[in-house]
Amino acid sequence: MQAEQVIEKILSDARTEAEKIKTEANQAEAAEQAKLTKELERYRQQTDELAAKAGEDRRERILAAARMAIAKEYLAEKTKILNKVFAGAQERLKAMSDDEYSRLMAGLMTQAVETGDEEVLVDTNENRIDQKFLKQLNRELGPGFKANLRLAEQRQDIGGGFILRRGKIKNNVSLEVLLAQARDALEVELAKELFAEKSE
């Protein structure tokens, strides 16, 4: 074989080998590109999901904050209304006629009496719960009671109503306490209603 033919053979083999290497490189590059495209797609999906979740989380936080602000406003309004209602109730109780007040106190005292020999403490300015009132109530208490309610010598600033005392035991039935209890019960009811609305 002549030198030219040898060189031509070497060049031909080299070209064939180069084509083979180039084809393999192209295939490897295509495979790598496909893998990369797949990875990028997966990454894009994850990013979209994270962005959507972050958006949803932000939306939920905004909604929760808005709900809380509305609930606070709602509660403040209800508190204002309660203040007005109880201020009005207190005024109406003070403005009751002697007859109405006496009937109310007689009913409350009948419910509060435990033995019938309690002392009755009244407000410093009270003039409707007196000995005559207690004498009448003792007659009405009936069987099962000692019917010996008596007016205490000392008076307290309780703003209306009375306190029944037997030894160290006191049963406070002042109007202030009654209104406070009614208000507490109503506020608990309103709080339940408020949180029920919030959870819906």
Brief synopsis:
The protein has 200 residues and is an alpha+beta fold.
SS content category: alpha+beta
Average pLDDT for all residues: 80
Poorly predicted regions are none
Number of separate helices: 4
How many β strands by DSSP?
4
Strand line-up in the sheet with most strands: 2-1-3-4
- How far is the first residue's CA from the last residue's CA? 96 Å
Gyration radius, rounded: 45 Å
Helix and strand run: HHEHEEEH
* Helix content percent band: over 70%
Q: In this structure, how is the largest beta sheet organized?
A: 4 strands, mixed
Overall morphology: rod-shaped
**Percent of sequence in beta strands:** 5-15%
Q: Number of folding domains?
A: 2
Report on the architecture of this protein.
A hairpin with a 2-residue loop joins β3 and β4. Strands 2-1-3-4 form a four-stranded mixed beta sheet. It is an alpha+beta fold and 200 residues long. The longest helix has 92 residues, at 3-94. It contains four helices and four strands, in the order ααβαβββα. α1 (3-94) runs antiparallel to α4 (175-199).
Itemize the secondary structure elements and their pairings:
Blueprint: H1 3-94, H2 98-112, E1 119-121, H3 131-141, E2 150-151, E3 161-166, E4 169-174, H4 175-199
Parallel strand pairs: 1-2
Antiparallel strand pairs: 1-3, 3-4
Helix pairs in contact: 1-4
Main attributes of the structure:
alpha+beta, 4 helices, 200 residues, single chain
